[in-house]
């Protein structure tokens, strides 16, 4: 079998290999391909470049079962306690070492879930296409929402995995935090359920490092250049 000819399969296997979820005989076969095929080595190196710079700062932590059940339910995945017990939850906040630990850990957790989605669904069943992803966590490192971006259909989907109570006179607002410049408002989100928003061409991980949600007055921040209320959830915006 020449997996280098099947780009989708190669990408999935490379991701699972780097994440450590490829086990047993499948892992040994992949390592044999890795020694012999430069395309397999390149795919593996690309996934290592995506995950290792963040994960190297992060010690493993056991996730709450309720967290993983909520994420799996929102993504339509069947519960798998054996897999859930092995996964690590990644925690932290932006402006200190703890935050960067959290970005790496949360990113790996999201990637693990998405690999599971790709492994259990046919290409035709995966719609919309997730090009980008962020897990937004609160100040206790609890994941609150998963944001996926579809570069083909130019949409953002915000799935709340830990429902939040929002006062009637307040709104939650999603922001893109660029690598340089001021934050840009992306739209209002709910404290529960799923919201779909437009994705601008410039809001890719190449230009935007973080997504954040602020608690604002009803209708959102009156300042288009940034939040006026507190940032309550945030996470790294990553390419898949």
Summarize the model shown.
The chain is α+β, with helices and mostly antiparallel strands. Helices cover 35% and strands 24% of the residues. A hairpin with a 5-residue loop joins strand 4 (170-178) and strand 5.
Helix content range of the residues, please? 25-40%
| Low-confidence runs | 53-59, 82-101, 115-126
The tally of helices reads 6
Query: How many domain units?
Result: 2
Query: Taking Cα atoms only, what radius of gyration do you get, to the nearest Å?
Result: 18 Å
- The proportion of strand residues reads 15-25%
Principal-axes geometry comes out as: elongated
Spatial sequence of strands, sheet with the most strands: 6-3-2-1-9
Order of helices and strands: HHHHHHEEEEEEEEE
Distance between the termini: 25 Å
Please count the beta strands (DSSP E, at least 2 residues each).
9
Structural class: alpha+beta
Largest beta-sheet details: 5 strands, antiparallel
Mean pLDDT: 74
